[in-house]
Amino acid sequence: MKTIDDLDVAGRRVLVRADFNVPLEESGDGTRRITDDGRIRAALPTIVALRSRGARVILAAHLGRPKGEAKPELSLAPVAQRLAELIGVPVALAGDVTGPSAQAIVAGMEDGDVVLLENVRYDKREDSKDDAQRAELAAELASLADLFVSDGFGVVHRKQASVSDVAALLPHAAGRLVLAEVQVFQKVLTDPDRPYAVVLGGSKVSDKLGVITNLLQSVDRLLIGGGMCFTFLAALGKNVGSSLLEADQIDTVKGLIADAETRGVDLVLPVDVVVSTAFSADAEHKVVTVDDIEDGWMGLDIGPNSRLLFAEALADCKTVVWNGPMGVFEMAPYAEGTRAVAEAITRVDGLTVVGGGDSAAAVRLLGIPENGFSHISTGGGASLEFLEGRTLPGIAALED
Question: Are residues 169 and 150 in contact, defined by beta-carbon separation less than 8 angstroms?
Fold first, then answer.
């Protein structure tokens, strides 16, 4: 892949596909406030580098799922405001994606200016299954620019007009963020320093079957927490009460457990869990061993002995990838498992990668210093598909 250092950008219009899909909340005055600007900050190195070399930076991004409708609550206006604060220069927001407003603002740009197009998913052609519709929007986007830079890692696993299609129409390169993400995941997939451990959490085993199958061929240790651990525990014959369970995946999980044993992969599962009578921070809760989960109780976090077990399994590792929380970290009584694993990973002497999504959100919500990790990915879905060994359309479009 070419990088932005390979492009002559001075005085040229550079379309940058970023990932500004940030969480918002309504403020008391009716305005919307960004609650986590991590994805915006992750785009700064590319934007700053392009501006410093005299580029005219045109940013394309999405927010939420407007499904082809111009929904005011999903406007990128809060993003334009926050980005302007971070880079210290005005960021003009177009009133549309490729229409008259976008065309007029781009036409008036000078070297070093930054423009943000309105939510690209306001246009239903962006993620259309119809190749011709996507190509049509891609052509309109390409007409606004001279060069294309892909810097939205969180969307590179999508076949979309502003992600994969436009790259075929303009000279293109990977931005700083996408380049860093690709290099990190290629390292852990092809040449990890050992011992190599992967920590997986989150709710569903079915979401990560491909990842687990692929990782069993390369990891030394696989640690399973979160809601998905209960399907593993059920596969071992344990009662999981009212815990999240994918009964239709039990036989598949039995096969994964057998495969791990055959390959000599150390499969680490919780030995105790925090259970509750309801999915609530205020409900009664207690710690029990995984052999003592009663009917009517649901597991919402790994327990204290499991936290120690997981930390010990990670202590001597040289490569650790973490994707998915250990419990319902948004609720204080069930956040300690995720906190303990995150802190254990920060003590690892080697390459440590947080696989985006809920894991990255947990790091910030729990106040874990981000500089304690080698790399925090901005793409939960993209990082999972990378670990699964899939070809990502947005990356394939950049390769020579």
Answer: no
- In whole angstroms, what is the distance from residue 249 CA to residue 209 CA? 9
- Measured distance CA(126)–CA(98) in Å, rounded: 11
Select which of 13, 39, 176, 339 is catalytic.
Answer: 39
3-state secondary structure of 144: coil
Q: Is 367 a catalytic residue?
A: no
Q: Give yes or no: 99 in active site.
A: no
Which pLDDT score is estimated for 384? Answer: 87
Q: Say how far apart CA 75 and CA 122 lie, in whole Å.
A: 9
Catalytic residue among 357, 379, 380, 394: 357
pLDDT in tens, 45-100: 999 999 999 999 999 999 999 999 999 999 999 999 999 999 999 999 999 999 99
Active site residue 381: yes
Question: For residue 3, what is the DSSP state?
Answer: B
Known active-site residue 39: yes
pTM of the predicted model as reported, rounded to 2 decimal places: 0.88
Point out the catalytic residue in the list 64, 95, 210, 381: 381
